[in-house]
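Sample 3 of the quickstart, ligand zinc ion:
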Amino acid sequence: MKKILIMCPQIIRKIFAITILTFALPIYAEEDTSKIINNYIQCLNAKTFLMDGTCRKIRNWIAEKTNYYQYDEIVETLVNVVGVQTYYYDGVKTTKKDKTQCENNKGLQGFYDPSRRTIVICSNNFETSGEARLVMQHEIVHAAQHCYGGTLSRNSMLKALYFRQPPISDDFETVLELYPKGEWVNELEARAGLMSGLVIDYATLLYLSCRENN
Ligand SMILES: [Zn+2]
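Result:
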């Protein structure tokens, strides 16, 4: 009896919280791209974002309910909002130097230039268009590492949210062979990828990494 009495307020609180969350569940129209972005950023900015499920709900909406172009637009905005630029080989903003670098190195799929805080995607070197998103994900991790000031999985919150598995990569030998020793850990982390494998989570990781550094 005593136990039931003690449990009751908890149950009531839980039901109350679920009711609030259900009503707070965002329902967006297809054209509400900027509203979705604003709500998501607002939610990530809240100190309590880990405790309430709103961010996850908006993130799920982005991942499941948006169309291909809308999804890309949201990801790109989230990346740009922290000051990181994203240029594609064919894009108007890509510099001549970037293009030459992409053209002269057929194995180069993309790179992050920390001095300009710019991700360049060498789309000229792809066989399928789907590769662009994977390369973007990889370079976003480098941008996040730069923003945070080192390996991201050192941060307990980022690690718990995105790196539940240790960053082990098939590319281990390649990395050791092609990269200077000082870049090994960051390169392996970027190649290992995130648990979810979703580009929206990469963009969110970048957003949070920049915030964690402040
Ligand atoms: Zn890399």
